[in-house]
Design brief:
Four copies of one chain form a homotetramer.
Chain A (H helix, E strand, L loop, with lengths): L13 E5 L7 H4 L4 E6 L4 H17 L6 E6 L10 H10 L6 E4 L9 H6 L6 E5 L5 E6 L4 H13 L6
Parallel strand pairs in A: 2-3, 3-4
Antiparallel strand pairs in A: 1-4, 2-5, 5-6
Amino acid sequence: MPMPDLPYAPELSVSAWYNTPEPLTLEALRGRVVLLHAFQLLCPGCVAQSIPQVQRIERVFANTDLQVVGLHTVFEHHEAMSPVTLEAFLHEYRIGSPVGVDMADEQSPIPITMRRYAFRGTPSSVLIGRDGSILHQTFGVEEDLAVGARIATALSAARTSQ
Amino acid sequence: MPMPDLPYAPELSVSAWYNTPEPLTLEALRGRVVLLHAFQLLCPGCVAQSIPQVQRIERVFANTDLQVVGLHTVFEHHEAMSPVTLEAFLHEYRIGSPVGVDMADEQSPIPITMRRYAFRGTPSSVLIGRDGSILHQTFGVEEDLAVGARIATALSAARTSQ
Amino acid sequence: MPMPDLPYAPELSVSAWYNTPEPLTLEALRGRVVLLHAFQLLCPGCVAQSIPQVQRIERVFANTDLQVVGLHTVFEHHEAMSPVTLEAFLHEYRIGSPVGVDMADEQSPIPITMRRYAFRGTPSSVLIGRDGSILHQTFGVEEDLAVGARIATALSAARTSQ
Amino acid sequence: MPMPDLPYAPELSVSAWYNTPEPLTLEALRGRVVLLHAFQLLCPGCVAQSIPQVQRIERVFANTDLQVVGLHTVFEHHEAMSPVTLEAFLHEYRIGSPVGVDMADEQSPIPITMRRYAFRGTPSSVLIGRDGSILHQTFGVEEDLAVGARIATALSAARTSQ
């Protein structure tokens, strides 16, 4: 159960969405547990480790109200990872959950949402509680047992605790 | 939180203990979550999969009151898996948590505790709640995410719920 | 040692080269053993399996005259796998051996070299003997032991046998 | 092709054989390539790595005249790894190729053949050429590509070169 002083998860800033009929916002997801997964399609650690883990998470927690949200946070090789390449990537890797493109910033190679969360790189993950607070944020990939435990604990928090 | 009608975990019947100063009983462990892991030292699936998973579980949940209990349930090749071989096995595989030898039954190749739980073979695992009820029992190995989630949920049950 | 009636490896048709100061041709490589590796950067089996295997091959056979040649054979999602994306991909995956872009065909989504070899998809590999004959061609990934044995056998063929 | 000054492989000293109708000797195997694999049934590295690799080798080189010979070289926990345990182990791990028990030495915990080869521990492997010379000896497990290449090169040596 999130403590009152946990930081609130900043809102997403997204320029395009895939795999969702309409844009997602964390505000609208309030009341549910959200796993935000920041990746880049040319990031070897994302492709080999975090994306397969997120797909396992979706399968194992399919019967819960966990919402997985992918975020394509391009901070390098911008031309190489355009939306047309992302769309083909999502198709080839059979990624069916919602993915947003992190909003580019004209003043910086770091996109907007990535800066709001101060991600150190990709892959990064944020577990957001029912009340919108950040329960856990990590750079890299943690082991499945710990991740499963953390998500289950977040899910067990009463909806009324938000 | 265990439902009132969950079956209670039958007591262990053990002829020898390793890695513990004194014998363990489920009765004495009441109030804690217990992971009972039944294995045989010549079982390939145990050596390759369930024992490494149990060792990961011990590491990830080291700061909780989870108690892992190994049970050497020999139901075949009895002469091949004697206590002297088990002791060397525990040493070579660096298994430091308590392991009991399931009590042999003179009338059957199936040892006593194995029969009480109706294990279908090895590896088998039983997750026992704080109140002594069987929360989950499985033959084989389940994936880490699901196992981590299940243990975390069991641990989150209030101690007073027993 | 290649039999006289083995098919000769057709020449490469490449629109751009990476990781080589000048274009490669099989003709100029005659006398050496060549491993031709056809891949696409958005092909999951290439990224997870064949590219790591090719990198292991380069390491294990570093002291031989084996020449590894990558071929980016884009036959789908053409816009998604443009040269700018390939270049970033080679950088991120630390691919340092020569890679050619298979020449696009205006009449077909299948590029020229891919058609010459009748590749069934990606990843595909061709082992070419010192005399320019095709010793082995495969779609998918074969196990390391067999691949290592096949390359060693090709390398052991006398240079004068060409 | 073995050089004239390569050391000859010392003969095996074995107290019991499994999976062979009659005892094997290196002398009788002269003319064939032999892979000698020294292991202990309670050796984690053997069970997890070298035994599976030897089983892959047997499968990949099934159509050659390679002879795999297992050697149970017990140098510690002697009581724990008696023949009755070895026999059950071979059954459970589906090891079907010949395995000899290295002859115990009354004066030392190190068995006879292990001492002759100066093995540093288990797993150890020796690749023996058609002429009986030691082509390669290693402690631990090497990668499949290199192992496959080495065996193929040994097999390609003419039988008449012995």
